[in-house]
Input
Amino acid sequence: MGTDLWGTTAIVGVGETDYVRGSDRHVCDLILDAAMDAITDAGLKPADINGIIPPPGYMSTEEIAAHLGVPDVAYHVSVLMGGASPTASLQTAAMAIAGGLADNVLVCMGWNGYSALRPKPDARPTKRVMNLGPMGETVRNHYAPYGLMSAAQHYSLYLRRYVETFGIPEDAAAAVAIACRNHAQLNSKALMRGAPLSRADYDAAPFIAEPLRKFDCCVETDCATAVVVTSLERARDLVHPAVVYLGGAEGHPEPADEIANRANLLELGIHRAAPRAFARAGVSPHDIDVLEIYDCFTYVVLLQLEALGYAEPGGAPAFVANGNIELGGRFPLNTHGGLLSQGHCWGLNHVVEATRQLRGTADAQVTDAELALVTGYGDLGDGSVAILGRDR
Amino acid sequence: MRTYVPTPEWIVLDWHHACIAAELLCIQRCTGCGRWRHPPRRFCPACQSDQATFEPVTGSGSVLSFAVSHRSLDPGWQAHAPYATLLVELDEGPRLLAATTTPPGEIRIGQRLAVRTEALSENFVLVWADPASHDEPTSMAPRARGNPHD
Output
């Protein structure tokens, strides 16, 4: 099966809404707009879609199919890994296609990540919420009673350990935050376009949950994104150059449902996913041209870079220094601005950006980009990796 | 404003009830192999036995890591920001979160701790931990301090 799976499917359509705070659109409209955009971008019609991977919450496959006019859903599945879900969904989409269960699979994500917590006074209420999945029970029972409600607080439990174990300087976190913000200045849809970030701004910002300062945290956003995956064979007949799904993987820490009792607090899901993904794609970390790394928090980016093999444990600060991750550097990172500065669409916006980079149509285009790597991170440390490449 | 107090269910509720009954921190222990484990689990990950009891622990441990929150969505905690939440490694091995009365700046990874519990309801105990005093035995003193978050 392995040889029939990896490298035999491709992303052929991408769609995204604007990334805003305080959208006037209902969350369902955001999701459906992005989905229709992705289908249209692929040169397909809703009737061509017969596989759907819906967002973790908000809308069901059944609703999405009915509203888009998808008449015959042959396969669907929900992937519940928080922010690791969209990137992990690519492997599931590829399996369904390679296994003959579906032909064209729609993967979509969208939410009212800003407005759900801060509705406008005249906003019509919605009962639609994200599916917290396995994270909900642990947070409700074990973390929230101790005043740890937000992801920044939960992750700070192990990020403190990371910073103290290796002496990780704020310089490294600031380099990630500023690179993402610089790239957002070039992205037509980035929430933080027009709002550059200086090192002085970074340093002056208050702590949210140590070591995380304000600009170490991603931006809550109302937005939606979608991609369409199909077989490489069909992809070659469609409008855009095929972006091949060369390999991917997911991984979970042990235990995955809580942080405190892991033998190594710093071993995340991606530490297990990364070697699997590189082996499946048949490439090595230094073959990659563009990095789209799940950046809910800057220090989580540093840990992922180490897990991927770009640095030894504790070595990420040297990797992100000296412009290495800026556009024009050796490993441009989050060329759309990332969750930190484009907007938070659970990392499916990273997949959209990687696809555009490999088509050669990104706003902040990396010259001759042939291979892109995307990561997802979610819940209490689940991880996913996707390696995408230009066709031939 | 009251700090959020959940009503747990299933084996998590059993754990809270055991701590409340003993007026001490109890931790689940495998009847089959004696291994301590937390949070409560149905099967022992080492020997797969589903036989386990909740037994009192010494209440001694150390700081493995800690969160320092400068903001909280919970108004009860927000009033005390910045506040620390400790990730405690008990001497018996299991780890759990604990609230602390110690200011964040006085907490260090590796610091020795004494742990105690405070029942916030009939179904929920909050675990507290503060640096172990060299002048006193590290025995637990239930209800020795009021909850500063009331």
In short: Chain B touches chain A at residues 3-6, 8, 12, 37-39, 64-74, 76-77, 82-83, 85, 87, 94-99, 104, 109, 120, 124, 126, 149 (CB under 8 Å).
